[in-house]
Amino acid sequence: MDLNTIWFILIGVLFTGFFFLEGFDFGVGILLPFLGKEDKERRIIINTIGPHWDANEVWLVTAGGAMFAAFPNWYATLFSGFYLALFLMLLTMILRAVAFEFRSKDKNPRWRSWWDWMIFVGSLVPALLWGVAMANLLRGVPIDASMTYVGGFFNLLNPFALLCGLTFVLVFTLHGAIFLTLKTDGQISKRARAVAKALWIPAVVSLVLALGMGYFGTGMAARLGVAPIVVPLIAVVALLLVSWFLYRERTGLAFVLTGVTIAFSTITLFMGLYPRVMVSSLSPDWSLTIYNASSSPYTLKVMSIVALILLPIVLAYQAWSYWIFRQRLVRESPLEY
Fold this sequence. Notes:
Oligomer: single chain
Strand order of the largest sheet: 1-2
CATH class: Mainly Alpha
Largest sheet: 2 strands, antiparallel
CATH architecture: Up-down Bundle
Structural class: mainly alpha
Helix content: over 70%
CATH topology: Formate dehydrogenase/DMSO reductase fold
Number of helices: 12
Distance between the termini: 47 Å
């Protein structure tokens, strides 16, 4: 296994970690205006992710940095071609971050309600657009021989991409609802459990359709053969089992299973791409790969040494933070946001 493949796998791991962790963050943000019936309940809901949301976004920053350093042509083509979509995503994520900090600066109900809805928008739009972006990487976009995206914004809004965007929203919201069931008690927890049960069927249907279209509709099955179909099947089976554990109030296992669904769905995407990183819909020969889009071998070697030193430290710190803030939040908990 060469360094190009190792860095492709590492970027896949970073996106998997980001979707797993930020997935329940987005889900909690989407549910905030609906599950919190009063200000104190909404503050409890926000506090469930308050210590973690910014650290979870570090996975995205690291993935983007790794992409820039290891595969600069991939980074350049992706961020120039998907500029409007990524700008909108970044704008709403910034708005979401500002909302977390600003909502507690004034006790006026209208002020707090405004920022609560900004958290909703800043969670819903990125979840949708991440699904759209990832689907287009696999489906293919207009890229010419000079590695330049020659399409427009509406090239990205095809049926497969929109289905994947909807799937991301539904699965992340389900993930967030189960997380709230774990982290809260009383009425909030009951409402979150009810929402999770209601979301389960739409999430399953959407995921099956998206994985089916991705596996059989993008040429992945013909290129990889039948054996790798076990990976998306694990994602589907895990999501099917979520309902069984929800109804038996084994919420921890249900949360693990939604995480497995997110992880194996992301693995399916990167497995379908490899060794490509962006597929050209104009010509297979113009697709970006881990070789024609990569940095020099020396750069990849230096990056590998730095990653081996720093990555364990970052992972240990994040694990420690989740351990410190592992307690369930109740109405008597100190409130910050």
